[in-house]
Amino acid sequence: MRKIIFTFFIVFLFVSQGSAQDGGFYFGPKAGLTIATQNWNEAERKPLLNYHFAAFIESIDYKYKGSLFAQIGYHTRGSSIFVSNINNGLRFSEGYKFRNISLLLGAKKRLITEKLTTPYYFFGVRAEYLVSDNLDEIQDLFSNSPSALFYPIDVYTNTFVYGVSFGGGIEYLGSAYVQPTLEVTFSPDFSFQYQSPEIPNVVSPYDGRTTTIPERRIRNITFEVSLVVRFLREVIYTD
After folding, report:
1. pLDDT, the chain, mean
2. DSSP 8-state symbol, 204
3. Terminal Cα-to-Cα distance of the chain (whole angstroms)
4. Residue 46: CB atoms within 10 Å
5. Which residues make beta-bridge pairs with 194?
6. According to the model, what pLDDT value does residue 92 have?
7. DSSP label at 3?
8. Distance CA 183, CA 110 (A)
9. Is-contact 59 24, C-beta < 8 A?
10. Is 171 in contact with 179 (CB distance < 8 Å)?
């Protein structure tokens, strides 16, 4: 995680210094709703509702040729599950939650309009570091159920994942130095957040026979809706 934060500040200094020569840069917070889901061995899971927040810096794009940006954020990846087991008294709705710190570097293209709004789209590459997860908590919830053996365990969680993020939004005019923005982001991972090997010779709690727990590969896919506030840091040169 320290490497991601350190990299962000290096990129922050690089973008801010380079953008200052063009008259300044934008910066600000993002926060909003997360709809997270996962692909388990090519099978889609149910979505998990959560939240995210981030901070960004962006170069100024006076001529609508495009800008560069860097973003560091806290995101909850995962998916939801529903358990109903009358025999063991289990009935609850829960989710697998992987809480990640992410670094996103990308480019943004704004579209020229004659209205008080400016639509845009963007694309970036992303690296993430796992801060915590709730797999042990899920195991505790399943401790009274025979199916506990067949759910993910923390030892096979990957600390680093990577992927891409792309999306778009609308900038609203606001004032000269403050602009509210509504943004949507789609973030599929390329790497696996969780990967366990095939585990043979496991005694089944259902019938006492030995069975094999198949290899499990979990990849995150996340959709986010964000409210963004862009602040202008203007640099004025005088003789």
Report:
1. 83
2. P
3. 43
4. 12
5. 157, 218
6. 47
7. H
8. 13
9. no
10. yes
Q: Which residues of 190-213 are buried (b: 16+ CB within 10 A; e: fewer)?
A: eebbbebeeeeeeeeeeeeeebee
φ, ψ at 193 (rounded to 5°): -75, -25
Question: Which residue matches tokens 């006076």?
Answer: 62
* Contact (Cβ atoms closer than 8 angstroms) between residue 230 and residue 58: yes
Q: Enumerate the β-bridge partners of residue 150.
A: none
Q: Six-digit token pair at 154?
A: 């923390």
Amino acid at 175: S
Whether the Cβ atoms of residue 95 and residue 48 lie closer than 8 Å to each other: yes
Which is it for the CA torsion 37, 39, 44, 45, positive or negative? negative
Above pLDDT 70, what percent of the chain?
A: 77
**Residue type, position 136, single letter:** D
Phi, psi (rounded to 5 degrees) for 19: -75, -30
CA 90 to chain centre: 31
Residues 207 and 199: their CA atoms lie apart, in Å, by: 18
Q: Which of 56-60, 98-102, 148-152 has the lowest mean pLDDT?
A: 148-152
| Secondary structure class of 173 (helix, strand, coil) | coil
CB 28 within 8 A of CB 206: no
The span from the CA of 36 to the CA of 39, in Å, is 11
Q: In Å, how far from its chain's centre is CA 80? A: 16
DSSP, res 15 = H
Q: Could you tell me the two tokens for 131?
A: 């801060």
Structure tokens given for 239: 């003789």
Give the helix/strand (H/E) hosting 5: helix 2-20
Torsion of CA 118, 172, 127, 72, to 10 degrees: 150
